[in-house]
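Handout, section B. The chain below has 586 residues.
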Amino acid sequence: MIAPAARKLFARAAFVVALALVGISGVVWALWPNYAGVRRGQADAGYLESGDCRKCHEPEYASWRATFHRTMTREAAPENVRGDFERDNVLEFDGVRAEMKREGDRYFVLLADARGKTQRLEIDRTVGSRRMQQYLTKQGDRWMRLPVAYDLQQKRWMHLNGSFFRPDGGAYTQHVAEWNSNCVFCHNVKAQPGFDWDRRTWKTEVAELGIACGACHGPAAEHAQRALSPLTRYGWHLDLASTAPTGVTNPAKIDSDRALMICAHCHGQRVPEPEERIRTILSTGDPFDAGADLRAFFRPVQADTKVGEFSFATRFWADGSPRLTAYESQALTRSKCFTAGQAGARITCISCHSMHGGDPRGQLTTEKQTNLACTQCHEAFAAPTRLAAHTRHAPNSRGSSCFECHMPRVVFGVMAAHRTHDISIPRPSETIRFAKPNACNQCHQDWSVNRALAETRRLWPKADPGEGAADSAFDVPEGLRALFAGDAVQRALTAAAMHPATEANGPLLLEALQDRYPIVRYFAANALAATHPELPKPDYLASAPVRETTLRTWYAHWPPAALGEARAARERLAAGRAEADVEVGE
């Protein structure tokens, strides 16, 4: 038998002989069709579509195709449209009747208001396919997001006023958005808005709809061109330096900080640097390619970022950590897991997430959905005994989950509570100092913040040096306090943490259905319905009188005294809260 090393040496020798016979590999591939320059002179010159990559990378293509990245933006064809356009296809909201209709392979939204004004809008594209699907209609040279969307989790039509942090009574069209100047940048490959500043017109193009190969690997035409040569491909297989792949980026094989920037391009909302660059970006296109230095073109949005008079402060907790999705990069880069690492070789998104494997919902492998995501670096806590000594909880309990303690669900995005990527030590005092939910009370909702702080000091004396609160509100159970006294983001996340509802917090969630913010009612209704599926689910988008009619069927399940205490608590705690509407920016 030939040893593996000898076989590889023999293969290399054969490869050299083959090169000598042919002359140079370029003679071969130069005779094949030319990939490079398919979009010559365009901002996306050299970008290929995912189907071109499939020819050589079938497993990677198949795993990508299973992700929600692929379906981020699609044409409104039957295989892409997920909403119900034929049965439960009417939504009455705020005096407007929206009827969604399918006519053959075309889709429409018919809007009629109380004054008899009607609109018939054709759906041209879809956005999203996991939690909700939004719809775009083309008006002239612009694609506009419609105000109605389909909730894929609840399987019902919804109005976008119910998914953002705005109270009842807003304009029906307040969340209509222009795709060309906004959504196009993160939901597609290599956006080129094509705005003519003189004529005020658009000629928007993308290298590919949805988030496809080019978003992570950059322009690959040169790579594909060279791959046409069998000799070159064989050289790649042998890892020969003389035939190193060119013109393509592999995030797993580059400087970690540059790899993080590939994800941060969309998972780290940003503004042009300098701001005047926006004119060039809107006219000629996004200048960033995977593997480049994102900081050369953009700076990440932070709590103190302003564009004109517009402030991004409400998108962050008072300590500067993000409280909305699409800011994962800002969160990760402020955590010690990142800052304590060596530049170019530290934690990055693909340290945990797999772009070509794992559950498409989060793109984590089965292994990385457990503490192994953290113990790959923090090996000392892999053993159950060491873990229990560290957490002071049973090894298999929620209290010994690295995620629950160090990445609690204190971030909102797309109708769901998400884990923060600001990997930090649980500190109950942050709720007092920054009005930010803390990991301990996410589990122990029946504890007050002051009690959680006292327990933290008892179990981990050095973990939280913060002070207790003199305000008596922090002596009441945090689930109750945050549900009624916090701002809309806190209230929504608290209601989400109560899913499924317990008998004790049932009356509290019934009171949360009196909230002025539909998104708070959304989480409260879901928590209640998960506990009592036999009862009619309260409609979070319905008017107050309609909701009250439904709620009467729920009140009989709790003692009148418990219901009265919950109402009194809501009225008392809500009286002193400060509201702050939040532009989600999704």
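Note. Residues 182 and 233 are 40 Å apart (CA to CA). Compare this with the example in section A.
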